Fold this sequence. Notes:
By secondary structure, the chain is α+β, with helices and mostly antiparallel strands. It is about 35% helix and about 25% strand. It has two domains: about 80 residues, Multidrug-efflux Transporter Regulator, Chain: A, Domain 2 (Orthogonal Bundle); about 150 residues, Regulatory factor, effector binding domain (Multidrug-efflux Transporter 1 Regulator Bmrr, Chain A). It has six helices and eleven strands. The strands form two sheets. Strands 4-9-11-10-6-7-5-8 form an eight-stranded antiparallel beta sheet. A three-stranded antiparallel beta sheet has the order 1-3-2, with helices on one face. A hairpin with a 5-residue loop joins β6 and β7. α3 packs parallel to α4. The longest helix has about 35 residues. The N and C termini lie far apart (about 100 Å). The mean pLDDT is about 85. Keywords: DNA-binding.
Amino acid sequence: MFTIGEFAQLTNITVKALHHYDEVGLLRPAEIDPSSRYRSYAAAQLRPALLIRALRDVDVPLKELADVVDEETATVALERHHANQQAVREAQDRAHERASAVIRTLGAKAQVQVREARAQPFIGAVIRIDDSDENGDSEMNDEFGALYAAANELGVQPTGELWTTLRSGERESIDMVLCLAVGGPLGKDSVDSIYELGELPHRREIVTAWLGDQSELVEGVLHPAVMKIFEELERSGLSTKLDNVRQVNKPDGGVEVATTLKALSSP
Length: 267
């Protein structure tokens, strides 16, 4: 039998750790003196102790060591832990790549201009944004398709320009309004009530265009052109309300972000 000090020396496990292993039931002493409470360990406990120390050196959690009694069970615990670590490292690598992509896209220059734009009628549909909805893009595509169909049924020609804008909904929710530009005004009585009708006025507007590659954009991260227009509006002391900002999807695949600065008299 070995005293706890001797056992600690032989296994390179601290006395404090041996006390803890005893408390959690991982490695109990072979004997405990009933009067002195001194712990003693058997030679047969050297093997499991050395295996435990080896696994703890690679950070295998204590809760995964309960079944380690020999080299075979130790190997199982080690391989399981290695697989878990590998999964964590891969997740960290993906997070690193994503963070690098965000930094690159936010660092790309955005073109800013002020321009005059003609009045533009549109038909729109509202989507409630739900963080738990994994089919957001699919729903948007379906709604845009429905807008095209509704415009054609009403005999007005879609111009091909699409935009989205955000606005506050009920109970602090956020709604997205999907808008399709059309070639002529629509009478409110001619359109299903599920759609919204409107017209952007003849106006002066500020526009930002992102000059980077659209394929480099990171899903779930604010578009750099949207960020830029909010920065420009705040710098100029203008409103940064969400519903003032339109993200315009151009027919050529480009993206502009615009907000009206001033409504102008019709030319």
